[in-house]
Amino acid sequence: MPRNTLFRKMVLLLVMMLVPIVGLYFYSNRTSTEVLGTELSQSSANQLNFFQTQVNTNIERFSLWPTLLIQDPDIFGFKDVFLNSEYFNLDMINLVKRIQTKLNIQESSSDWKTKLYIFSPSLGRMVSDNDVEAYDNDDLKKRMRPGWQVKKMGKGDEAYYSFSLFTAYPYSSFSHPEDANLIIELQFDSSNIQNMLDKFKSDGRRDPIYYRPDMGVIYNRSADRPLTDSILRQLRQEPLKKAENRRLELDGETYLVNIAASDTTGWYLIDYVPLKEIVAPIEQSNRLFYVSVGLTLLLSCLAAYMLYAQVQVPVKRLVLAFKKLQHEDYSVRLEAKGNNEFGFVFQRFNSMVGQIQELFENVYMERIHVREARLKQLQSQINPHFFYNCFSFISSMAKLGDMKAVVAMAHNLSNYYRYTTRQERDVVPLQEELDFVRSYLEIQKMRKPQLEFAVDIPEVMRKWEVPLLVVQPLVENAVLHGIEPKSGAGSVRIAGEVGPGEMRIIVEDGGRGMTEEQMEGLRRSLTLPMSQDMGCGLWNVRQRMLIHYGDTAGLRFAKSGLGGVRVELHWPIEHTNIRTGSR
């Protein structure tokens, strides 16, 4: 059978089909992941920019408040008020209350928590939405700076940042607060930015922060501060750009970090997210796909194996059986497994082979019968000469008055021809075959007194049955081809042995013997069809042994210790036991 079985071919075909699919999926998935990463980075950058725009818009709007407040008549007129006594008069109190109301309204106009303070150098008072108090002019001078001022307040986890913006009137007096008629301060703290970071984080971001290298960090309220600080330490290793995204490796995990700077405040909005959170759905989808491909391949292999086991294996067994038939092994049978189409085919095959075997056995038997008939014909041609010799011997002995020799020859000759003419049975007890052989040898010994023979067969073997006329042809060959061509005395020995798993009858002679080449030629000729050039006795014996006992029975040839040829007739002991027991 070819080595590339149907199972291998089907599995190879499935693999060839799945490999391009997996390759295309891998390429498509990688491309999709790259596009997703790019789009995600762009989306994150847009969201950061939008957040920064919101913060910047609020701060820029706050920057306009002092200018708007100065335009208010009450607040603008507050710069010209002078205190003539320690206490405010009624008009002053009403003015202050109107100013406080306007400050409160202005502070409430934004969702950020802000504070507005109005400083009057002429009064030496500071007005807020809920208080009027004196202020330290020297401290005010120290705090007044152009633009937004940021100051860190508190310590540890309670630290926060205060943002303040000062405006003076007239504007030229900003650098000389003592010359100013009116000073307005706007304040808010970092809790407002924290509120926006918390809202920004609720959209799915992971710990967004506000960071300024010279100031510090504004965390969202649920920030993982140790992780955030570790990421910031890595970010500080390279200068920060206004807008960028980076990938950082930290404790074996990759983080996607997005950065957006504010031109208004100088603070960086930094947002980071573990890359595995981004690719987790993709990896889950990949795992599902690969598991599906694996299951598909497994089920396909199972289906291919079932097809192989249910189709190719029976076909292979059928082909091997036909090959055995081709080599003339008609004992082959196929065992049907399962109730399927091949079971029916196997039954029909077994029936066909059984019929063929029976037909061939019948043909072989007919051929053997033909050979036996031909043997008898040849023997009948020799018999006149055999008869002549025997009767010539009887006549000579009668003339000499040796009546014992006459009686012995007549008795042996009678036994010989009585046995050769028996046709009622195919098998006989070995004892009867030996009696027939002894009669033949006695006749030959009377003709050639120098002939010696011995029969050594165990008693247990003498009761077993053997095919008719299987020992006598071996003895006859020993006498005719081994003893007679040799001048002088000769001997024939007939023995029986019970070997391991087989029975043996041995016929050996002390004749002229055979060379190894002649013996090998004899063995080879017995395996070939019968020809006109070869004797039919041994061939006939071997064929009948094969039919009666199977392929393990037959003839063996070797040199004899007596000087001639040793012929061994053997067959399986179990066949003998079965045949003996059946009778």
Automatic annotation (TrEMBL):
Keyword Ion transport: no
PROSITE patterns: HAMP
Keyword terms of this UniProt record: Cell membrane, Kinase, Membrane, Phosphoprotein, Transferase, Transmembrane, Transmembrane helix
Class of the enzyme per the UniProt entry, highest EC level: transferase
Compartment(s) where it occurs, according to its Swiss-Prot or TrEMBL record: Cell membrane
Coiled coil ranges: none
Enzyme Commission number(s): 2.7.13.3
Main subcellular localisation: membrane
InterPro entries: Bact_2-comp_sensor_kinase (IPR050640), HAMP_dom (IPR003660), HATPase_C_sf (IPR036890), HATPase_dom (IPR003594), Sig_transdc_His_kin_internal (IPR010559)
Domain HAMP residues, every copy: 309-361
Membrane topology of the entry: Multi-pass membrane protein
Transmembrane segments: 6-27, 288-308
Keyword Zinc-finger tagged: no
GO molecular function, one term: protein histidine kinase activity
Source organism, top-level taxon: Bacteria
Protein name: Two-component system sensor histidine kinase YesM
Species of the source: Paenibacillus favisporus
